[in-house]
Each structure stands twice: as C-alpha cells, then as structure tokens.
Write a sequence for this structure.
C-alpha cells in the first residue's frame, strides 16, 4: 500500500514572512516554493491548511480566511498572543483551528522514515552554546537563514 506523503513538495507550500522581509521570502523561493510573501499579502488562492509558527494570535483570523472549506489552521507554537475575535462566517464551512503542543517520538520516526524520499533542504547557522544571546539577537534581527543551532561544549569523558 502506498504511503501518503507527510511532507508536501516545496512548490505546494506558500510561506509568509514578516511584511517587508524580502530576504526570507527569497530564501523560501530558493528552497523551491513557488510563492512567498508577507503576512500582509493575500495568497494566490485558497489553501488546504495553514501552520502558524509565529506566536502572533492576530495571524489566526488571517490564516482562517485563506483556507478552503474544510481546511485547518494549526497553531504550532509553544505560546501565542491572544487571538482576536473574528466573524463566524470565517470559520463556517467546517474550517477548524487547532493547536499542536508536542510532537511524539513516533512522529519523529515517521518523519525520518519518509525524509529520504522527499527533497528536504536544511539551512543552519551554528553557534556555540555560550553565544546563545548572540544567536537570539541574530534571529531577532533577521540575520539567520533557516535555523539557528546551539552546540554545547564537548566534555572529555
């Protein structure tokens, strides 16, 4: 039996970044996304689902307006600011909002099983653990492409 892909191809992902963050939008296109824009820009068309990593509750109603009937908005952060009210019409059509608190070990195994079959591209900037504050400053300033990785010092055994 064929498995359904866990990871969609990049050209089916429409990422949003902070308004005016042209570098991040360009980075998304380099990774293969057909479209990338700011959170203040409409998508080219309705989408099946939206995953919000930003802890900004005000993005939830905007994402909800972008999903097709039956679509989902997934809030994937550990915390989020309050979600402002929105018209019921934006939720109508069996759209849903849900949160994802934690991934399980099984989720990790499932991802690693399918990852070799999908063109997963990773971009990291490595910082020694002692430079964690510098890493946070670089993230806040938008100087990181991809993910920042903190590496603890090696201890002789």
């Amino acid at each position: 039996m064929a498995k359904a892909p866990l990871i969609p191809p990049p050209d089916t992902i429409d990422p949003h970044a902070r308004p005016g963050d042209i570098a991040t939008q360009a980075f998304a296109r380099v990774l293969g996304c057909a479209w990338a824009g700011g959170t203040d820009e409409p998508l080219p068309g309705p989408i099946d689902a939206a995953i919000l990593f930003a802890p900004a509750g005000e993005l939830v109603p905007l994402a909800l307006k972008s999903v097709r009937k039956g679509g989902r908005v997934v809030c994937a952060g550990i915390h989020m600011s309050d979600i402002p009210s929105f018209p019921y019409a934006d939720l109508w059509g069996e759209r849903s909002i849900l949160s994802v608190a934690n991934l399980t070990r099984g989720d990790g195994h499932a991802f690693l099983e399918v990852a070799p079959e999908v063109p997963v591209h990773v971009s990291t900037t490595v910082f020694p653990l002692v430079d964690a504050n510098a890493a946070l400053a670089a993230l806040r300033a938008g100087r990181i492409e991809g993910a920042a990785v903190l590496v603890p010092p090696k201890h002789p055994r």
The first helix runs from residue 22 to 30. Strands lie at 16-17, 37-38, 47-52, 67-75, 96-99, 124-128, 147-151.
